[in-house]
Specification:
The protein is mainly β and 439 residues long. 10% of the residues lie in helices and 40% in strands.
Length: 439
């Protein structure tokens, strides 16, 4: 279908966020800052075990609407739960995930941004995406081509939206291009193949793409091995940790920029952008000091854009880096210092494997070998340990904890790969009436 529309409105007045309203019935009271009145973390009942479909839960993330997403490499799936443990409908596309060639994918991490893009990685150089909102409302059609006329010569030209020139217009050229060219016509099509690709899990970023290998000058982008992913709600980028290693010590945090790719008309009538990922920069690289990276294993971000990560290399297992946007590009420096912040003391841990930060910037670190979670305040000072013993034989309930997330209510979710379970904890002085503790 051809439409005569104001293209400037589409290109420059459409924001980068698609419309999505978080349900009002989600309990989103922020957790409290830790203080003297806090007592202990209680285990909530029931734990979500293999009867919930879990096989080998590997990572966990909380969506803006409060749902819990669990990456499960055992079932090649991403499981989705409501806060009460019930399983919502509409997420079957995230079960038995497959790649472009039909090969099974093994998701090692998942994260959800405020556009309801569900990003996940499988330990390779690829980032996949699936949009929850688009699947709820459906896609009507996508932009196929535009016709424009040179203002000086009057010559008409048809531009395909898969061309490099379109990509440049959508992201870089903008109004400068429209000073010389006048839009004549836009062509939206009900292209089932393109629509189905956008609705299904698909590649968002590929380190082997020519543009990414070109932009990633000093490293082997095509050999990246992503181990953790996180997104920041107020910026058009996401972050991943790369643990490829090699002779060039390719241990780093990468910024992936969201680039406008396709214009999509939803069944609601809204016109939104579909994005693709493009290499932005290596924001932190290899080193052994505070705020450097060596064999990273996880990544999280707080509401101020500070990044937190765990690593198994020398010398400090847990780091936080703070962005400074005052110059032409962001510079990240260490937010914690050895000898000052408890969280950087390597004697605290045996095998810290994952980190999460809550609404008040309290930090939670999973120590796999100690079978516990260590909790620190926003300054990196130690607060409390989360661990739970069975009443019968005083054995720790967590067998092999590997990942953690905290929702806006302050409920702590721990992936226990050994028990094929998700355990939930909450401070005893902040229990809600509808939360049941384990006896």
């Amino acid at each position: 279908m051809k439409n005569s529309i104001n293209f400037i409105m589409i290109l420059f007045l459409i924001s980068c966020s698609e419309p999505f309203k978080v349900p009002n019935n989600i309990n989103s009271e922020p957790s409290n800052t830790f203080g003297a009145g806090d007592t202990t973390f209680l285990l909530l009942s029931p734990s979500w075990d293999d009867s919930y479909g879990l096989e080998k839960p590997t990572e966990i993330s909380i969506a803006p609407d409060g749902r819990i997403f669990v990456a499960d490499i055992g079932s090649n799936s991403i499981h989705v739960f409501n806060q009460d443990g019930s399983i919502p409908t509409g997420f079957n596309d995230l079960k038995t995930l497959k790649g472009v060639e039909g090969n099974l994918l093994y998701p090692v991490d998942v994260d959800i941004d405020n556009k309801m893009n569900v990003y996940f990685i499988d330990g390779s150089e690829i980032i996949y995406v699936w949009n929850q909102y688009w699947n709820e409302v459906g896609i009507n059609q996508v932009l196929s081509s535009i016709k424009y006329k040179n203002r000086e010569t009057g010559v008409d030209t048809i531009l395909d939206v898969n061309s490099d020139l379109w990509y440049a217009i959508a992201n870089d050229l903008g109004t400068d291009f429209l000073n010389d060219w006048e839009l004549v016509e836009t062509n939206f099509l009900n292209d089932n193949e393109t629509i189905n690709n956008l609705l299904n899990p698909h590649i968002f970023y590929d380190g082997k793409d020519d543009k990414n290998t070109f932009n990633d000058t000093y490293y082997m982008s095509d050999s990246s091995r992503f181990q953790g992913i996180t997104s920041y709600q107020d910026q058009n980028n996401i972050f991943v940790v790369d643990d490829f290693g090699g002779a060039n010590n390719q241990h780093r945090i990468i910024q992936i920029n969201l680039k406008r790719h396709l214009l999509v008309e939803l069944n609601t009538g809204d016109i939104v952008w579909a994005f693709k990922g493009e290499f932005g920069s290596t924001i932190k690289g290899y080193g052994t000091g505070a705020g450097t990276v060596h064999q990273p294993s996880s990544l999280d971000i707080d509401y101020q854009g500070n990044l937190y990560y765990t690593q198994s290399g020398d010398f400090f297992p847990v780091h936080m880096v703070v962005p400074n946007y005052s110059g032409d590009f962001a510079i990240f420096t260490s937010g914690f210092q050895p000898g000052v912040s408890d969280i950087m003391n390597p004697d605290q841990y045996i095998d810290p494997i994952d980190v999460a930060v809550d609404e008040d910037k309290n930090i939670y670190v999973v120590d796999q070998d100690q079978m516990q979670v260590k909790v620190f305040n926003s300054q990196g000072n130690f607060f409390k340990e989360i661990e739970y013993y069975t009443q019968e034989d005083s054995i720790k309930i967590m067998i092999k904890p590997v990942a953690i997330a905290v929702d806006k209510r302050g409920v702590v979710y721990v992936c226990d790969e050994g028990a094929k379970s998700i355990h939930r904890f909450k401070l005893s002085n902040s229990l809600d009436e509808d939360i049941i503790i384990d006896n």
